[in-house]
Amino acid sequence: MQSGSNVIGTFVSQKISKIRWIEEQYVEGNSFLTGSWENAENSIKLWTHKFSEDGTDTSPQEKAEILFPGDVTELLLLRNNSENFVASSSTGEVRQYRISRRPDLPPKIIEVLSWKSLHKWKFEPASCTAIDVYDGDIVSVGEDGRINLLTANQKDVICSIKDADSCTITCVCFLKHNEILTGNLRGQMRSWDVRCPQKDSNIESKFMKNGDQTGTTCITHHPTQRHIVLAGHEDGAIAIWDLRLASYPVSILTAHQYTINELKFHPDRPNKLLSCSYGGELWHWDAERLGGGDGLGWVNSESSKQKLQVSVLISGLHKPINTIDINREKVVCGCDNEAVYLMNNVFA
Q1: Using one digit for the tens of pLDDT, what is the confidence trace for 291-313?
Q2: Main localization of the protein (predicted)?
């Protein structure tokens, strides 16, 4: 493995599909969650890790585990909450969990609620491919082309759009509390008003990167300017969109050689972006020199590409890096080689 910064790798005996830091309100968080896939028995685990002050490597410690049905396809903390999170499954369901922490007992992951059979074919379940959260609202999309709107701590499905798409919806993100953006296997992206009950009336716009129907694999919006959206694709390209001009991308970045699995903006420094790929690479994109301290440099013209700095944090794993997350100066990623990797001072 080659890396551009100090990396702590830990073997965890599971292929990791999703990894998420648990944010703390006033201090730097030291805990994260992992979800597994393609294992005989999948699970969600809680870990803690502190980088030592003397620079010696310390491995993360497993603190709690709960078994999970099917592959974990997404893990997300509910907004402004360090205890409650939701997870989606390849069996077509979504589950809500709570992390119980008491000073006199070890931490525990407790299931709070489950929404079963959200995604299904006629005689068998369909994968819930992605979810996103906005405060207490949850949206799920799936292999069956369905969209579901849920609310945390409430069993009933708020809204369901059956046959929203004729092919697999691969990714989704909230733009506003009532508006979502989806991407599908053909590379089409659609924005939806989830307040409208009928399929035809809630499609606000639809667009795609180009005419080659390259699948959209992930979507992320700018942390403060939600009309700026970056989409990762099966061909390794990153399309940059200004949804106010959504008929075509502002720019297309030739990025990884293989499929992009996730894109992550730094939540407090939107000029910083991470991408990870099926080819086992983790890259850091720095748009500082594009101008705009608020991260608006991403929508500068094509001529700004040469000012975009790209550094390699990890390469040469020869197994997919499926998932990444950022916590201030720290980065963590999960891979198909049954390991997690932690880095500190990445953005210093």
Answers
A1: 655 656 788 755 456 678 899 99
A2: nucleus
